[in-house]
Amino acid sequence: MQRIQGLHHITAVASNPQANLDFYVGILGQRLVKTTVNFDDPGTYHLYYGDNVGTPGTAMTFFPWQGMHRGRLGAGETSAAAYALPKSSLSWWLDHLSANHVTIASMGKRFGETVVTFPDPDGMMIELVATDDPSTVQHWEDGPIPAERALRGFHSVTLLLNDVEASASVLVDKLGYELVGQEDNRYRYKGASADRGLYIDLLHVPEAGRGAFGAGSIHHIAFRTVDDEEQLEYLTHLRASGLQVTPVQDRQYFHSIYFHEPGGVLFEVATDEPGFTSDESVAELGSALKLPEWYESRRSQIEAKLPAIDRDAHSAKNQD
Asked: What is the pTM of this model?
């Protein structure tokens, strides 16, 4: 069975859709590639940000529940999501964040690379990792960040855990990751690809208490499988190992299975296909509210409940 290549997407919770869009599009330069709804709560948006086409390994997605209380980070959660950026662009990004009034929480070295950490509008920790690792993405030419400075998709995620052994076993024995480094209480595991979204860091904090889910919390992380056949192999493999895995869920732009790893983090295994261009052209991505066919009969009621957002405010503003 093919080893997991790396991250597919990361899904988190926000409290205000416009503030969320302003940050991820206007400051981080990610394209809004899909505007849809939470399939379990269609009165709430599901916003997808990524490179020009939402390439797997670049997609950050949000459920913006308006007015939701701020979450509190604890054990059994993903504590940070990291994007890759070219080493040569680090000083530019520091100036860019400062100019946009983003407060840096920390900056330091990790596995020989500089990592800059800062909160998004809901307190979720975002990291920028200055790296020369290869990363194949499609630049959003109409976005606010020039191509040579743009983020290169995901670098890694960090899982905050009371115990790492059982979680590491799932990564290595069930998903095919390999341990590639350790610094103090941080253990780094690498997927099978040589491209974006390769790393999962396990941060061992035995004394950490449980958190409280809310705005700024990462709901789940998703791993890549190429197609339905490969995903079904994983479904069988994971269930045979004793993990409680859901049936396949149709998420319109990919198919998904879910399970909690032993430390408590919700994992998803998602297909690369069919992708975000299955119901919109590349030029039109994110520009209209897309609903699955089972909600089309309720479109007028759903649209009336959703708050207005300005999708176009951040296009064509490349900064030098």
From this structure: 0.96
